[in-house]
Task: inverse folding
């Protein structure tokens, strides 16, 4: 083996083989074509999502739970 390498990602590998009486069968040409990777979200998008989740959490935690009040009265 002349060399080895590890590749990660998605794509296609194309191998071209040649048959020769003198050398036998060997890989004549190898090509790698990788697919485009997915875009990484911008920091502004993550900030917007996080602030929306925090706002929903704050809104929910600031309201008194009507179900909890009913349970307290039922236990008396």
Result:
């Amino acid at each position: 083996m002349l060399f080895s390498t590890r590749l990660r990602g998605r794509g296609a590998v194309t191998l071209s083989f040649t048959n020769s009486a003198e050398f036998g069968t060997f890989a004549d040409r190898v090509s790698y074509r990788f697919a485009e990777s997915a875009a990484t979200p911008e920091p502004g998008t993550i900030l917007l999502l996080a602030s929306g989740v925090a706002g929903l959490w704050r809104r929910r935690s600031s309201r008194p739970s009507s179900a909890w009040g009913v349970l307290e009265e039922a236990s008396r």
In short: The beta strands are 11-20, 24-34. The CA atoms of residues 22 and 69 lie 90 Å apart.
